[in-house]
Amino acid sequence: MRFGATLVRLAPVAVAQRLSAPDRLLQAADRVLFNSGVQATSVDELLRHAHVSAATLYTHFGSKEGLVAEALRGRLKDWHAVWDQHVVAAGDDVARLLSVFDALATYRAGTQTPARWCAFMATATELPAAEGEIGDVLAADTELLTSRLLHLSRPIAGARAQQLADEVLVAYGGTLAALLRGSPDAPIEVGRRLAGSAVQAHTRTTAT
User: Fold this and answer.
1) Domains observed in the chain
2) Rg (CA), the chain
3) From 201's CA, which of 43, 52, 75, 84 has a CA 20 to 30 Å away?
4) Which among 38, 207, 188 is positioned nearest to 121, based on CA atoms?
5) CA-to-CA distance for 36 and 49, rounded, in angstroms?
6) What is the per-residue pLDDT across 153-186, written as a single tens digit (0 to 9) for each?
7) For residue 112, which phi and psi values (nearest 5 degrees)?
8) Does residue 113 register a pLDDT over 80?
9) What angle do CA 175, 177, 178 make, to 5 degrees?
10) CB distance 88 to 99 below 8 Å
11) 141 neighbors 76 (Cβ within 8 angstroms)
12) pTM (2 d.p.)
């Protein structure tokens, strides 16, 4: 029994040792930055978690900011892929619009190191005037969210698509904030219901 337990404890270390140094840095960034905070996390702490030298960080990413940007790019790529899958699997226009909530649940369940709420919103809150690589990836996340919600709202609300997209966006943002607050229970389900109510209101308006 003790031998088996030892194997369980050592397995994550063995896996980490098989990762390249840049991958270990990205894994450390995912695990620490978006939970402890970008500004609160020192370079030394990242290096300790990744078991690499400062030279490795600067060689592969240029700076701590470069590492943050690359970690965010990885999350954006994964999130985009999960959301794509849910949009494709949805059976109708309403399900496609509300799939952002289903995708959020799937993404968080499948992420090894989920952020306390939203890595992009957390970073934007800490770095409201972010420029360069970090600013670019934060803008890309916003663009994906706003443009896709608008596109998916058009078949439902027609000329009022922007209003519907804005309401779903606010419901989604509130869901992310509720994840950080820890209340209410099941915030993703609550956010989806709120967005569904907005859909129903715009459907009635469009019908009349």
Assistant:
1) 69-207 (1.10.357.10)
2) 20
3) 84
4) 38
5) 13
6) 999 999 999 999 999 999 999 999 999 999 999 9
7) -65, -35
8) no
9) 65
10) no
11) yes
12) 0.85
State the burial class of residue 19 (Cβ atoms within 10 Å of its Cβ: 0-12, 13-18, 19+): middle
Verify cis geometry, omega within 30 degrees of 0, for the bond prior to 184. Answer: yes
pLDDT digits (tens, 9 = 90+) for 53-112: 999 999 999 999 999 999 999 999 999 999 999 999 999 999 999 999 999 999 999 876
3-state secondary structure of 114: coil
**Which residue type does 13 have?**
V
DSSP string of 4-17?
HHHHHHHHHHHHHH
Rounded to a whole number of angstroms, the distance between the first and last alpha carbons of the chain is 69
Grade residue 206 by pLDDT with cuts at 50, 70 and 90. Answer: low
Determine the length of the chain.
208
The answer to whether 176 touches 121, Cβ cutoff 8 Å, is yes
Between the alpha carbon of residue 89 and those of residues 108, 148, 168, the distances in Å are 18, 16, 20
CB atoms within 10 A of CB 119: 27
- Give residue 114's pLDDT band: very low, low, confident or very high (50, 70, 90): low
Helices (H), the chain: 2-18, 21-36, 43-50, 54-61, 64-89, 93-110, 119-126, 132-157, 161-181, 187-207
* Per-residue tokens: 124: 């934007």
Identity of residue 142: T
